[in-house]
Model the fold of this input.
Amino acid sequence: AGDRGGPAVVPGRDEADRRAARAMFGAAVAERRGCQTLFRPWRHRYGSVRQMGSTALPLLDSQCRVVGHRGASRDITQRVEQQQQIARLSRIHAVSSSINAMIVRVRNREERFRAVCPTAVATGRVQMATILTRSSATPGSMRLHSSRVAVAPAW
Done:
């Protein structure tokens, strides 16, 4: 009969996501309370993933049995992406501030090299940080002679 409704949104990315949503919704029904803010990824049938924010209130009959729900969903993808960007930029700022303070405080170049990478990994939550410097023995050369690496634990 053809698609007249436009691009539908299909809940969940995988079965685990659908099970988690059913469990949250089931608990709300059992307790006869609403789901005020249910955030979950939804996969558009054409492949893109959108973040949806949903609310639902149970409709009860005279014996307080759930007979339906009233609710709404809205696309919050842009807000979620902006929050992630703000968090990333905040980590970058924290790393930059820490390193600048270290430059002022620690005068020895080798000590700075030893301290900067672990700070970047711990504060910036990056997987790896390294410092590479060019050799002064051959001006204009790209030969690297100093490297300090710190590797992050699995976050």
